[in-house]
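Slide 14.
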Amino acid sequence: MVNQERIAELKEGPRRAGPVVYWMSRDQRVADNWALLHAQEEALARQSPLAVVFCLAPSFLGATLRQYAFMLAGLEEVAHRLAGFGIPFFLLEGEPAEEMSRFVEGEGVSLLITDFDPLRIKRSWKEAVAARISIPFREVDAHNIVPCRRASPKPEYSAATLRRKLARLIPDFLEEFSRLAAHPFPWTRSPGPVPWAELLSRLPVDRSVPVVTAIVPGESAAHRALAAFLDEYLEGYATDRNDPNRNGQSGLSPYLHFGHLAPQRVALAVAAGGTSEAREAFLEELVVRRELSDNFCWYNDRYDRVEGFPDWAKKTLDRHRGNPREYRYSREALERAETHDPLWNAAQKEMVITGKMHGYLRMYWAKKILEWSGSPEEALATALHLNDRYELDGRDPNGYAGIAWSIGGVHDRPWGERPVFGMIRYMNFKGCVRKFDVQAYIARISAMGTSMLSAGT
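Slide 15: predicted structure.
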């Protein structure tokens, strides 16, 4: 049975006969999905049909062909896997508030269940749907190991403050998943085949950012990537993760972002392998830092604005607004990686071409955008635009929190004061040289070519 503390009532309503629907959004997988498991529990108890519905919005926070292609390929696998359990998959197109409410009423749905997401746009969709329907509507946190609402009732100041709370609660939530069963109560009609290739070809999205082929989308690929990380890279994670020249990171972030892989499955697998140092280092990132990002976006609806920075950071940035910048670059120049800094250019180029950037360099990359922009507002807007345009895992709480940490001191503390940055933590080229072989990294990325940089703008 799904832990009741994962479940929030978004709308109450009278119980009535009819099918149960899981409105899949953030957690796009069949295995290890608490929201889907809860939906089946309810459908079995009611002896009712169960369906999964995904609503494809015509645009989403600047996502391009790159991200839509990755997502749709994953959803195609979801539909195929669900069919094996006798659960139909419906793909709707359009504005979620309108399409979901129409589906609920048209199919006589008795209960609507969805997954948790702290982003404003997802919350607004749910509020709009709740206002239009008359049946019970529930949300299940299938993404966090400790449900976001349960982990803390307030915004956390730092990783340290949330870490203590999570340590007390994890034993209550880090449990093995139950298994989805073949569903014995059939839906009254077939959803029909989804024309996946045609759908992708006609979507009105930005096609100047091409599909990434080196990272295979979907639930099966996600589990293969996890197995490879456990076998080959977990043991060295504690020492290798901050070196961009080593395969020291997990490579799982796109799969976690699109919900192809449950963070809880990753945590269970990692907890069973590797040295204690490697396990602790990885679980700090997977659990504490990632769930801190959800906490940030859930309790701070200005997570993508300077107004969402802590007061000390806003004050120190304000004091240094008028400081002269040695270098100033337009958004277009940054997008083309046309700066004086070869390391920054290489990091930008890696992101544009591969759809990912090493975690350590993401910090350096964002801080330099602050240093080279006319204002913190300009820097934040530029960093979010580039991140969300090219990263496969863009438009994610981790991205919002990471950029806010780099530019606005979120979850950090004041450091020594300097021009432009004020007391925001500073990073520079020399510091990176001390960390890893910068020239080797630049040479490796330079060998990738430059055509994408022109096409991407």
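Speaker note: The chain has a mean pLDDT of 94.
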